[in-house]
Amino acid sequence: SQTIHQWPATLVQPVGSPLSLECTVEGTSNPNLYWYRQAAGRGLQLLFYSVGIGQISSEVPQNLSASRPQDRQFILSSKKLLLSDSGFYLCAWSVLASYYNEQFFGPGTRLTVL
Amino acid sequence: GESVGLHLPTLSVQEGDNSIINCAYSNSASDYFIWYKQESGKGPQFIIDIRSNMDKRQGQRVTVLLNKTVKHLSLQIAATQPGDSAVYFCAENEGYSTLTFGKGTMLLVSP
After folding, report:
1. Which of A24, B38, B55, B63 has its CA 20 to 30 A from that of B80?
2. Any CB–CB contact under 8 A between A48 and chain B?
3. Chain CA centroid to CA A102, Å
């Protein structure tokens, strides 16, 4: 069966510091991968998605970037965090090129920027 | 855990009642719909899906109804239990596109 991991689970960072969040998927090959952000009391905002190694699509211009160095690894980064980057970050995967885009989510990373 | 309920519509029910959570979608071309459950501090969990060639689909204690005429989706939970307390999101997509998520509804179940 497929599993998706995210780490760290929680993170407290000062404003202006760098960020690296990691997501890995097991049990599947060539998945679509996604990064979402969820502010408190809000819905899910799609940040980035990837259909393959090195292929990143950005949905929202912002202070963040994403990379996919390996087939089942997706990384969310920032060079300098802003207060507004605080939130709950979720990674998800789906079957590549599936018409019905069922996505499966990881456990999330809670980021607090102080 | 995360306080996801601060700005969300809330449905409060008694244990054992049936719950109905509604979702309006905007894209008339959407042909696939999913309901997710998100417990506090956790990632969304897939509950049930439905394709546009259906108007009803049943799972264990859950039923999803799709009305394409008015672009409305509902999730019915039978015999609601305290463990059903969570935020519920609907999501839609058209073909190979990414999912579009609704704003979510918080379900509170009282014993």
Report:
1. B55
2. no
3. 17
Tokens representing residue B58 in the block: 């049943």
- Of the candidates A41, A46, A42, A43, the one whose C-alpha atom is nearest the C-alpha of residue A64 is A46
| Residue-wise pLDDT tens digits, A62-114 | 889 999 999 999 999 999 999 999 999 999 999 887 778 889 999 999 999 99
The helix or strand, by DSSP H or E, that contains position B66, with its residue range, turns out to be strand B62-67
pLDDT digits 0-9 by tens, B32-86 = 999 999 999 999 999 999 999 999 999 999 999 999 999 999 999 999 999 999 9
Note the pLDDT tens digit of each residue in A41-70: 778 999 999 999 999 999 886 889 999 999
**Residues in chain B, total:** 111
Q: What is the largest CA-CA distance in chain B?
A: 42
Find tokens 């990064």 and name the residue: A35
Nearest CA in chain A to B97: A101
- Minimal C-alpha gap between B1 and chain A (Å): 9
